[in-house]
Amino acid sequence: MPVAVKRVYESVSHSDGARVLVDRLWPRGLRKTDAAMQEWLRDLAPSDTLRKWFHAQPERWPVFRKRYLKELARPEAERDLRTLYRLARKTKRLTLLFASKDEKHNNAVVLKDLLDGMRKPPTGTGPHSLRAMRMRDAAVRRR
Length: 143
Fold this sequence. Notes:
Distance between the termini: 33 Å
Largest sheet: 4 strands, parallel
Order of helices and strands: EEHEHHHEHH
Strand content: 5-15%
Number of strands: 4
């Protein structure tokens, strides 16, 4: 399943597939109807502290990636991460939307790499954790 990243301000395309916004804040000047997205996964966004620390300083990219991946292991991110993996599994194409002007250095790029399996994720955030999540969900439903 192909995963793409795209600025939320770019025009909607049929080839986008399922569109998921992965920013904590709603993009300025954009109406929700114009975004044409299936999900808004706020808890997958970097913390405000990390976002402000990294903002407009691409030389901090390697450290940002590392810190952001650690943040994805937080319990608050688990639900949205589970939703993202389910969408990735169910759809033919997934487009991760972001508002940043920097198209190469943003959290959507990190999430794409995570979904593509290019980076080893922190414990509990990788595709392998999806099986464990499904087993937990099935056990809860049986009760």
